[in-house]
Structure formats: structure tokens, C-alpha cells
Design goal:
The complex is a heterodimer of chains A (94) and B (663). With 94 residues, chain A is mainly beta. Helix content of chain A is 10%, strand content 46%. Classes of the chains: A mainly beta (94), B alpha/beta (663).
């Protein structure tokens, strides 16, 4: 079975040395960030349904004083495009 | 000798055939005790009723039991195991909407499991009223007594008496055959009933004939239990013995029919004083001198049938637990026989349920009115799941599969419509019990799903250097030589964030070796294998243990065995890091860290989510703790609690006094 988009993004991202990426959302918003974590689909563990991203501007404060992660979570379906800074390659999501 | 996965002999021997008789056919084999009594009831006996009723029973057993279950459904064995959950495990990846029907089917099967022991035992014991002088005997205390003894002895297992079940059922079926044959020889005209035209006339012309299908259906209720017990004997044993069983059953039904034909114009109603009772044709075909042994044999067969249902319910709940549909409860193995389990909490539920059924319905005639409605739903679900199996696993032609589904759906929907008339007469009881089971299963499924949905995974590689540094930092007191976390992450470089927080936050946990153990429940019922990945040599190790869904996850035992194997293979060196503890005791110490979620006070729920999640966490508290469920010794476990924030409260009007700013 062909792996679906989120699994390919996961595989590619965690093989990178330079973890900085540029995500373009479907609403046109562009976020330069790293991925801090992800949430899998409980019914299909191969699929990631949400990503926890930390924008570049917050890199040094990944957690607040209550140990709560900063940054934001975005649904995988919200992502239109990802640019990987390490090799400037792009991944499109239809 | 070739062994099947579950340890039962795959070879066909006289002994294996006897075992099949004793385990598989208890439910369906005791149906002659009540089917024709339910069909005839207090109606005047006439040819259309007798020929039509027998014809319907014949074709129901042929289509539903023989063709659907023995020929088709038994193909769907999951490494030798049968039953609705095994079928679901086989086909779940082929359909999106299979969970709810599966839960529904399992709930209704369990509910019918509560009524089967009372109806079988009551029908057998009521035979006593046929004896002179015992017409007024109160059967309820005897039935309750038999049921109580049966449930009491469950904790000791059935291994010893179980060996007698096969010969006892062989004796039972031979009795059915002999009694039936004697009557058929006297009135061979009853054999005409195999002509389906009689069934057609009965359903279309006999007053309320279609509704009487609900009584006819009782002849096949045991087919679902037959499929559930497949794992005990194997498909070939079941198929081979079915020929004998079917012959015995049909001849007995025919014999009862022949006796009824000789009483045309009469009814089965009998008045004992002012009490109206219905004569049971099953006992009427017995010679009077044989009544006492006949009643003893019938009661014995009813007990064996009940035992099969009780054992089947344990298996069903155990599978439900392993598929995350049931709260984790204690499961015991009363004997060394593989696959034989005893679940104390389920035993108590069934015990109370069966006793309440007897007290509520009082006699088998009233129970017949409630019996069968729920199981029609299970059968419809089995047909639905079976269609996925035939289409995607066996890759049968679509048109053929759809035709079969259409055939069985029309039969089962007819039975359902006929059975729905039982709702006000007692069917509501089994549907009520089914809905309680359904609610429990759905809440557990949904709660577990939500809980897993909020499990955040992070890249383990990112933390490896920090773990190594922490392990070697002597300023931090050592928590344990081996620190073991149970993880849901099955990928090599993945771990839950809460585990990393547990290691580093607040009071960091220092250990010589950090283990991340992933338990993978496999669809292969008795699988037990493992893989090991060392992320940092002798420091950070990930272990995946693959455990079949019928194997008890005794994680600590398995884990220690794996460590022992790694040491024996010189893949792991435990004595590289002597510390204070090893001066007094060179045994390595293990600490398992279990992280339990609880519903955070920060949550704000919708009504539906609130009910489901609160029920899930309530059931979780009542069930086994994580350490018990994973088979960990309490002395080796650290339990940490983390809040589950599902829907944080968003509108908080918190004002600082003397200031207009709100947060």
C-alpha cells in the first residue's frame, strides 16, 4: 500500500539534519518552524492527523513556566505545501 | 502430531470428534427441549401447524446453520479462532464502519448468553412435572440451585469434568435420535415436511404463521455460539460432527412432529388445578419408564450447554478487552489448559443475570418469548462482516457475495420482524441488557480513542544525548538500574512526549538503562515474539513485544525473559556500572513507570463527550489498574498521573480587584 502524505512528511522530516521548514497553510499563511511533535490517528496509526509546530521566533522558549508546550497545533489537512530548508525541496499536499 | 495454533489437535480422531460434540453443540443441541413447544404453544394441533412448523425448522437449520455457519462462516477462522471479534479482526482494515456493528453484535450475543442457561436448565427441569405426584413441584428453586452450582464451580475450571462432556453429549444426541426415530417409524408421513411448500403455506396461510418464525428461530440460535467456540476444536472436527448432530436434531424434531400429528385436534394445554401449563412434546415422546433418566440426561445436556455459553462469554469479553472494547478486568486461568480462562467479574454478572431471569420469567415458556430477539441482530452483523471476508479475503465474485448477502439478509430480517413481536413479551429485557453492554463497549472504545488521540509523539533521537548525560550524572540520585516505560510508539525513533517529561521534568529519573517497551497486540491469537533495537548501546533500548490477542500480557515476565536472553547472548552487559547497591546485592533492580491519564478539571465537555469520557474513566477506575493489566508486580512500579485536557475551558472571567482589566 502506498504511504499517504502525512507518513511521507514524517519520514522525510525526521531524516533531516536541519529541522527548519517552511509550511504554507491552505489559507495562505506561511510559518517558518520546526516540528515538536505529532498526533497519530487512533484508528490508523500510520496516519498523522495533527502536527505540533514551534515557529522559529519561539525556538528558545519551547515550553512556558507551567511546562506547557508553546507553538501551535495544525491539522495535517490544513497544510498545502512544505519547503525543507536543508535541501530546499518541496512537498505539496492536494 | 500436527498442532493448531491454539494447541488443540488438528488431526481428526475419535477423541477430537467427541470433544467437538461436548463443546460446540451444547446450545444448538439442546434446542429440541423447547422449539416445538414454543411453535405449537396453546394452538390447536393441525396438519398445517405441524408440517409447516417442522418444515420451517428443517429449512432454517439447512440454510442458516448448515449453509451460512457450517459451510460459509467457518471459513472465516482467524488462525483457528472463530467468533464475531475474530471475524472483525480479520476484516477491520477493509471497511470504515465496522466497529459499531461489531460492538452491537457482541453486545446482543452476550445478552443472549444470559438467557440461554436459564431457558435450557428450566426446560430440562420442568420435565419433572410430567412425573406422577410431581405435577405441582416448584421448579424455580431447582433451576436457581443448578445455575448457582454451575457458576460457583467456574473458578475451579472445567478441565476435569470437561472430558466427560463429549461422551455425555454423544449420549444425549443418541437419545434424541432414538426417541425421534421411534416416533417417525410409527408415523413416517411426517417426513413430507422436508417439502418447502409446507413452510411456505405455514408462513403465508396459517394465522400469524409469519410471527411464529420467532419460535422456529430458536432452532438455530446456537449457530452463533457454534462459530464462537470454533477455536476449541477446529473447522474439520466441527464439519464432520455436524452431519451426525444434524441428523439427530432433525429426527428428534420429526419425532416430536409425528407425535403431534397423532394428537390432531387437541392442544398442549394442561390444567394442574387452576394453573395452566403447556405440555412439552419433547418429554411426551419419551416412554413413561424413561422419564426420570430422560430428565437427568436433559438436565446434564442443559448444564453442558450452559457451560459452553459461559466459557464463550469469558472468551468474548477477553477478546473485547484485547481489542479495547471492554474495561480491563482480572482474567484467571483455572487450569493449565491453554485458552481456558475464568473472569470473576463476568462470572458474577452472568450469575446475577441468570438468576434474575429465572426469578422474572419463572418458567421456560415465558423465557421463550424473550429469547432470540437479540441474537438475530448478532446474526445480521455476522452476515455483514462475513461479506467483507468473502469479498476482500477470499476474493469471491462480487455478484455471488451480494447474492449471498441478499439471501441471508432476507432470512434474518424475516426472523427479526417475527422476533420483534417478542419485544413486549420479554424481548425488551435482552435488548435492555444488550444496550447496557453496548454502552459499556462504546464508552470504552470512544474513551480509549479520545485518550489516544491526545497522545503526542516526539522524536526520541532528539532526547538521546540528554538521556545519556542524565544517566551518567552522579549528582542526581539513581531511581533504578533499569527504568522501563511502556510506550504506544511502535516506530524506532518515536516516543510519547509524556514519557520524556516523566524522565526530565521536576525530579529527573536517573537510570543505568532506559527501556521503552511497546506491546503490540497482533491479530494472530497466540503469537508471542519480540524485537530489540539499541538506540544507544547498553543505555537506551527499545523493545517491541508482539502478543496475540488471546495471550495474557504478562509484561514483566516477558521483559525479564528478554533481558535474560540478551545477557546470555552477550548483547547486554549489566555489570559495567557498579554502584552502591551492587555492593550489597548484585541483583539488578527494575522499575516500571506507568503513566495514567485522568480527566483534567480544566475540561469543558459537550453532553455526549462528557457522558462517554466520564463513563470511560469511571469504568477504568473500577477495572484493573494499568500495572495489573500489563502484568507488572506492584513493588516494581512507579505510577504517575497526567491530566487529559480534551476541551479546555475558554471563557474565564477572572478579574483583579481594584482593576478593570480581565484575563
Amino acid at each position: 500500500m502506498k504511504p499517504e502524505g502525512s507518513a511521507i512528511l514524517h519520514q522525510k522530516y525526521f531524516s533531516l539534519s536541519n529541522k527548519l521548514i517552511e509550511i504554507t497553510l491552505r489559507d495562505g499563511q506561511v510559518i517558518t518552524c520546526t516540528i515538536a511533535g505529532f498526533f497519530r490517528d487512533p484508528d490508523n496509526q500510520e496516519q498523522i492527523i495533527e502536527w505540533h509546530i514551534v515557529p522559529q521566533t519561539l525556538q528558545n522558549t519551547a515550553e512556558d513556566i507551567f511546562n506547557t508546550a508553546t507553538g501551535q497545533t495544525i491539522k495535517h489537512s490544513q497544510i498545502r505545501q512544505v519547503v525543507f530548508r536543508e535541501d530546499n525541496s518541496m512537498m505539496f499536499f492536494t | 502430531m500436527a498442532l493448531s495454533k491454539n494447541g488443540t489437535k488438528a488431526k481428526i480422531t475419535a477423541a477430537s470428534l467427541l470433544v467437538a460434540l461436548g463443546i460446540i453443540y451444547g446450545d444448538i443441541g439442546t434446542s429440541p427441549l423447547y422449539v416445538l413447544k414454543a411453535v405449537v404453544g396453546d394452538r390447536p394441533i393441525d396438519e398445517m401447524l405441524v408440517y409447516g412448523g417442522i418444515s420451517c425448522v428443517f429449512w432454517t437449520i439447512t440454510f442458516q446453520t448448515t449453509f451460512k455457519y457450517i459451510f460459509l462462516t467457518l471459513k472465516a477462522d482467524n488462525n483457528g479462532e472463530g467468533g464475531i471479534f475474530s471475524l472483525y479482526a480479520l476484516v477491520r482494515r477493509y471497511g470504515k464502519y465496522l466497529i459499531l456493528p461489531t460492538i452491537l453484535g457482541a453486545s446482543t450475543l452476550l445478552a443472549d448468553g444470559i438467557i440461554t442457561p436459564p431457558i435450557s436448565v428450566a426446560s430440562a427441569v420442568e420435565g419433572l412435572t410430567n412425573l406422577n405426584g410431581l405435577e405441582h413441584i416448584k421448579t424455580v428453586p431447582i433451576v436457581i440451585g443448578v445455575i448457582c452450582i454451575l457458576f460457583f464451580f467456574q473458578m475451579y475450571g472445567t478441565h476435569k469434568v470437561g472430558t466427560a462432556f463429549g461422551p455425555a453429549m454423544f449420549f444425549w444426541f443418541t437419545m434424541l435420535l432414538t426417541l425421534g426415530l421411534v416416533q417417525v417409524i410409527q408415523n413416517p408421513a411426517i417426513l413430507k415436511a422436508v417439502n418447502p411448500i409446507y413452510a411456505y403455506d405455514f408462513l403465508t396461510k396459517y394465522p400469524q404463521g409469519f410471527i411464529l418464525l420467532g419460535a422456529v428461530f430458536l432452532a438455530t440460535t446456537g449457530a452463533e455460539a457454534l462459530y464462537s467456540d470454533l477455536g476449541h476444536c477446529g473447522r474439520r472436527n466441527v464439519r464432520l460432527t455436524w452431519g451426525f448432530v444434524k441428523t439427530c436434531l432433525l429426527l428428534n424434531y420429526m419425532g416430536q412432529g409425528a407425535w403431534l400429528l397423532s394428537h390432531k385436534g387437541e392442544t398442549l394445554v394442561q390444567y394442574v388445578g387452576k394453573t395452566k401449563t403447556i405440555l412439552n412434546p419433547f418429554y411426551e415422546i419419551m416412554p413413561h419408564w424413561f422419564l426420570i433418566p430422560g430428565i437427568i440426561i436433559s438436565t446434564m445436556a442443559a448444564i453442558i450447554a450452559s457451560q459452553a455459553l459461559i466459557s464463550g462469554s469469558y472468551t468474548l469479553i477477553n477478546e473485547a478487552m484485547n481489542l479495547n472494547f471492554w474495561p480491563r478486568v482480572a482474567v484467571r486461568q483455572p487450569s493449565e489448559v491453554k485458552g481456558q480462562i475464568y473472569i470473576p467479574s463476568v462470572n458474577i454478572i452472568l450469575w446475577i443475570g441468570c438468576v434474575l431471569m429465572v426469578l422474572y420469567f419463572q418458567n421456560s415458556s415465558n423465557m421463550e418469548a424473550a429469547y432470540g430477539l437479540a441474537i438475530t441482530l448478532t446474526m445480521m452483523v455476522t452476515t455483514y462482516l462475513l461479506s467483507f471476508f468473502l469479498l476482500f479475503k477470499l476474493k469471491w465474485n462480487k455478484i455471488l457475495v451480494y447474492s449471498l448477502v441478499l439471501l441471508f439478509a432476507s432470512i434474518e430480517i424475516s426472523f427479526f420482524i417475527a422476533n420483534i413481536h417478542k419485544f413486549p413479551e420479554g424481548g425488551y429485557i435482552t435488548l435492555l441488557i444488550s444496550s447496557v453492554f453496548f454502552f459499556i463497549m462504546y464508552s470504552v472504545y470512544k474513551g480509549r480513542k479520545t485518550s489516544n488521540r491526545f497522545t503526542k509523539f516526539v522524536d526520541l533521537g532528539k532526547y538521546v544525548a540528554d538521556i545519556k548525560e542524565l544517566s551518567e550524572d552522579d549528582e542526581i540520585p539513581k531511581t533504578s538500574t533499569h527504568l522501563i516505560y511502556l510506550t504506544k510508539a511502535n516506530k524506532r525513533h518515536e516516543i510519547e512526549e509524556k514519557i520524556m517529561k516523566s524522565i526530565f521534568s521536576k525530579h529527573p529519573k536517573r537510570a543505568d538503562i532506559y527501556w521503552f517497551v511497546h506491546i503490540h497486540r497482533t491479530p494472530d491469537p497466540y503469537n508471542l515474539t519480540y524485537t530489540v533495537t539499541e538506540l544507544v548501546e547498553d543505555k537506551v533500548i527499545k523493545v517491541n513485544i508482539n502478543i496475540g490477542f488471546r495471550v495474557q500480557p504478562r509484561t514483566e515476565l516477558f521483559f525479564k525473559k528478554i533481558v535474560q536472553e540478551l545477557i546470555n547472548n552477550r548483547e547486554l552487559n549489566l555489570h559495567l556500572r557498579p554502584d552502591v547497591a551492587t555492593k550489597y546485592n548484585d541483583e539488578p533492580d527494575f522499575k516500571f513507570v506507568v503513566i495514567e491519564k485522568f480527566l483534567s478539571v480544566e475540561n469543558e465537555f459537550t453532553l455526549r463527550d462528557g457522558i462517554l469520557l466520564k463513563t470511560y474513566f469511571l469504568l477504568k477506575r473500577q477495572g484493573l489498574s494499568d500495572e495489573e493489566a500489563f502484568g507488572l508486580d506492584k513493588s516494581d512500579v512507579i505510577v504517575e498521573h497526567v491530566p487529559l485536557v480534551y476541551q479546555p475551558a475558554s471563557k474565564i472571567e477572572l478579574r483583579r480587584e481594584g482593576n478593570n482589566n480581565s484575563i
